[in-house]
Design goal:
32% strand, single chain, 3 domains, Jelly Rolls, alpha+beta, six-stranded antiparallel sheet
């Protein structure tokens, strides 16, 4: 009997459907088990992550009417490993009908003696319910304290909340980290800027009536959707499937894997690079290390640190790049590149561990090239720390001609005052008092660059220890770009910035105000038009 081709295709389709169902069913069963059977905190190391109602608000940021007891909760240093991953404690959480961390009986009170507005410090991310600030205040004062805390927009939320228009507390306490005001400005989300420059509190009453207190919200469905988006089980499995990796053996031996740091006297001294730029990454100085030492964490794709320009000093164009590095959390790979007159190629990869390792990478370069080193940092969950970066058999770019032009400090933007007599005269030195952390000073139009570019040299200092790098911008007409990121000091330090600007546009240099300082002093500012670059003649 002959079987039709249509019946055969139908049978194949059925078999494919059955096999697909068998493949999907365990995954679906696991998902249903996670959502409707297992404890909400089973796959998180803290209740905080389990309770977050992302992307919903009530106006609090947690699932309403939640009660969770976690027998073993780990702190936020859990991912660092070692002893931190072994320390745990019993933690209990309550949330009220508004998604705030309060017991239900507190929320139902007609009047509060104290309301505390704040961030995670007030919520108590790893604290037991009885130990959070508002419960301690209630226990010690005999009054009723209410926690209205989680996000940077908490101030405008509270003052727009209809719950408190009739029962305003006897005492209102507001907490916020200083960094949220003077560094990342995240607390300014509570205000809008008026035409006269004043700040006016944002009125969010309509947001409460249309969203937070809207009667049509389905809290149960929102919780299911939120937990589906978080995929706690999937991330728990991913985190526990740790696959060790090693680099293949390279011609340079242990250089790409790193050795324990040593300060032996037999090593050849290299040329230290003071300046560099960072792209698509958050970065800051490593304050407990000798400078320059930098911490870099990716904030977007193609994040990297790029060194200043230099040249090889040996006749055979060979150099050794030497530095120490470590990751803040766990080992990972980082690529290192060599730029030769703008063209780049991959040198190799190195593995930064969670402790300091020294790397020495030999590189052969193209004859007569101006060089730069780039180190990629693609990790958004951790930082790469680099210190003691130097180039053996390398040095600054040499020039055949150097004619210095002194730039008077009186022609700069912003109001400043002459430095004291010991630090320089009116034309040599200028001091700016920093009242606006987003401000800057800008030079007058600089001399036209020579054939080889323009070299800027100046001395600077600030009045407080620096906590961040300060960007320096090059303006070419209306266009601008970062050309250096400087670590200022309490002492006078000399800085050099090698520029290759568009010679057909007026050129200026801008120095932003350092974040931590109250004053910035700059003196002996020189602009040096450069003639032909002569690398071979300086070996």
């Amino acid at each position: 009997m002959k079987v039709s081709s249509g019946s055969s295709e139908l049978g194949n389709l059925r078999r494919l459907g059955v096999r697909g169902a068998l493949l999907v069913f365990p995954l679906l069963a696991a998902l249903l088990l996670e959502l409707f059977v297992l404890p909400i905190d089973l796959f998180t190391f803290r209740i905080w992550e389990a309770a977050l109602a992302t992307p919903y608000r009530y106006p609090g940021s947690y699932y309403p009417n939640l009660h969770v007891i976690k027998a073993k909760e780990f702190g936020d240093q859990y991912r660092n490993g070692g002893s931190d991953s072994m320390q745990s404690k019993r933690v209990e959480w309550f949330t009220d009908a508004y998604g705030m961390r309060n017991r239900p009986e507190i929320e139902k009170r007609e009047k509060y003696d104290v309301v505390v507005l704040g961030d995670s410090n007030i919520v108590g991310s790893s604290l037991d319910q009885k130990n959070i600030l508002t419960e301690v205040i209630s226990a010690r004062s005999g009054g009723i304290a209410y926690s209205y805390s989680i996000a940077h927009d908490i101030l405008s939320l509270f003052l727009s909340d209809p719950r408190f228009t009739e029962r305003f507390p006897r005492l209102l306490v507001v907490e916020s980290k200083l960094i949220n005001w003077n560094t990342n400005n995240s607390s300014l989300i509570n205000f809008r800027e008026m035409p006269d420059g004043e700040l006016d509190l944002i009125d969010r009453r309509q947001e409460f009536s249309n969203n937070f207190y809207a009667p049509g919200r389905n809290l149960y469905l929102e919780r299911v959707k939120s937990r589906l988006m978080k995929q706690a089980m999937f991330h728990w499995l991913q985190a526990n499937l740790r696959v060790p990796f090693t680099l293949p053996t390279q011609a340079s031996g242990d250089a790409f894997l790193g050795l324990a740091p040593s300060r032996g006297t037999g090593r050849q001294v290299g040329w230290h690079l003071d300046n560099g730029t960072v792209e698509n990454a958050a970065f800051s100085p490593v304050t407990d290390e000798g400078q320059p030492a930098i911490r870099v964490r990716a904030t977007g794709p193609n994040a990297y640190w790029l060194s200043e320009r230099f040249v090889a000093k040996r006749w055979d164009e060979k150099i050794i790049v030497r530095f120490e590095a470590k990751n803040s959390v766990t080992p990972s790979r980082h690529r290192i590149w060599i730029f030769e007159d703008g063209s780049y190629r991959l040198v190799g990869e190195f593995v930064a561990a969670s402790d300091w390792r020294r790397f020495e990478i030999p590189i052969g370069t193209n004859p007569g090239s101006i060089l730069q080193i780039q180190i990629d940092q693609r990790d958004e969950w951790q930082s790469l720390l680099i210190r003691d970066f130097e180039v053996v058999d390398g040095g600054p770019v040499p020039f055949a001609q150097q004619t210095a032009v002194a730039i008077s400090m009186q022609g700069w933007t912003q109001e400043g005052v002459p430095c004291s007599g010991l630090e320089g005269g009116v034309h040599r030195c200028r001091k700016w008092l920093i009242t606006d952390k987003n401000g800057y000073v800008q030079t007058p139009v600089l001399p036209k660059a020579g054939e080889g570019g323009l070299l800027i040299r100046f001395e600077a200092r600030i009045d407080r220890p620096a906590t961040t790098f300060t960007p320096v911008y090059l303006f070419e007409g209306e266009k601008y770009r970062i050309v250096a990121q400087i670590m200022f000091d309490l002492r006078w330090r000399q800085f050099s910035v090698f520029l290759q600007p568009n010679r057909n546009e007026p050129t200026k240099l801008q120095v932003n105000y350092p974040d931590a300082a109250d004053s910035l002093l700059i003196r002996d500012f020189l602009a040096i038009p450069l003639g032909r670059i002569d690398i071979a003649g300086h070996r």
